[in-house]
């Protein structure tokens, strides 16, 4: 009962703020509510406050004791929803599949797959020396074991 009430409040808040979307939601045994959100344009503190208030202000603490944490997915968290890839176009990703690891710029996001692009130095086909070559990998979402944005300073 409590969980479905919280789910409905969360769903309503996300319908009102279509730029935000749910990454994870759980309620621990002692009514500890944990909500992790992301947004098409990132997440700021006010977004977390908005979701928090939408839930908290519609629950009765007299009826139910609870704690509530609303947070963003975080810069180092793996990408888990297809929608997260779109906001990271042109950023460097490290993508692991069952057999390979790729690191490159997220070049394209399609319905079934992403395209990474990177440059490598390879020996010239003829003669001595090396030449810079642009490589691409098309990786299906179903093959991705883990994908993270690489933070560069």
TrEMBL record:
One of its GO terms (biological process) is ribosomal small subunit biogenesis. It is found in: Cytoplasm. Keywords: Cytoplasm, Ribosome biogenesis. It comes from the Bacteria. Its main location: cytoplasm. GO terms for cellular component: cytoplasm. Residues 15-75 form the Ribosome maturation factor RimP N-terminal domain. Belongs to the RimP family. Required for maturation of 30S ribosomal subunits. NCBIfam families: PRK02001.1. This is Ribosome maturation factor RimP. It comes from Seonamhaeicola algicola.
């Amino acid at each position: 009962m409590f969980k479905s009430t919280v789910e409905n409040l969360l769903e309503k808040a996300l319908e009102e703020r279509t730029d935000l979307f749910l990454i994870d939601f759980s309620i621990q045994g002692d009514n500890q509510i944990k909500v992790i959100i992301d947004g098409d344009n990132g997440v700021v503190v006010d977004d977390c406050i908005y979701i928090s208030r939408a839930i908290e202000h519609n629950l009765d603490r007299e009826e139910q004791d609870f704690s509530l944490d609303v947070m963003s997915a975080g810069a180092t968290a793996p990408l888990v929803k297809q929608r997260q890839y779109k906001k990271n176009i042109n950023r460097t990703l490290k993508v692991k599949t069952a057999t390979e690891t790729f690191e490159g710029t997220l070049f394209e996001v399609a319905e079934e797959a992403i395209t990474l692009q990177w440059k490598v130095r390879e020996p010239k086909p003829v003669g001595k020396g090396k030449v810079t070559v642009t490589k691409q990998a098309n990786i299906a979402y179903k093959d991705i074991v883990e994908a993270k944005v690489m933070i560069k300073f």
